[in-house]
Amino acid sequence: MTSKYFMHVKIRQFSTHALSTALLFAVLTATAQAVKIHEGPAFKTGICEPSIAVDPTNPSNIYAGSVLNNFYQSTDGGTTWTTETLTSPYGVWGDPVLHADRSGRIYFFHLSDPEG
Q1: What is the 3-state secondary structure (H, E, C) of 68-94?
Q2: Is the pTM of this model over 0.70?
Q3: Contact 24, 30 (CB under 8 A)
Q4: What's the average model confidence in pLDDT over 73-78?
Q5: Whole-angstrom distance between the N-terminal and C-terminal Cα of the chain?
Q6: Are 69 and 85 contacting, i.e. CB atoms less than 8 angstroms apart?
Q7: Residue 96: is it exposed, middle or buried by C-beta count within 10 angstroms (0-12/13-18/19+)?
Q8: Which residues contact 76 (CB under 8 A, 6 or more apart)?
Q9: How many CB atoms are located within 10 Å of the residue 78 CB?
């Protein structure tokens, strides 16, 4: 695909882990609904990097985040999705990063400006 909005990246090293390969295979073989992750126009926001996290205590719980404050959640392995817009008194900036800890808690990290 060629577009002025896409960057070409050369991968120097790639490795796999047996568990991630198994999870990827399970996701690819399951029937699921695709969720469109809104990234915004590249000329205004730059290249966007959505983030995805899977709950290690229940792999049916999948979470995604995209610029600037969009949060997506599936509790049925990706068949259906709900969408929320997150807010912060300090503003929400930059690409979000999601992380699932060992207990299944989901964290949504983002940049903000405490000065307003």
Answers
A1: CCEEEEECCCCCCCEEEECCCCCCCEE
A2: no
A3: no
A4: 94
A5: 39
A6: yes
A7: buried
A8: 60
A9: 19
Region 52-66 average pLDDT = 94
Count the helices and strands in the chain (H runs, E runs): 2, 6
The dihedrals phi and psi of 64, each to the nearest 5 degrees, come to -140, 150
Q: How is residue 86 written in tokens?
A: 């997150």
Which residue shows structure tokens 């047996």?
A: 18
Give the type of residue at 82. T
Predicted confidence band of residue 44 (pLDDT cuts 50, 70, 90):
low
In angstroms, what CA-CA distances link 65 with 40, 41, 102, 115? 13, 16, 19, 24
Give the β-pairing of 93-100 and 51-54: unpaired
Q: How far apart are CA 88 and CA 110, in angstroms?
A: 10
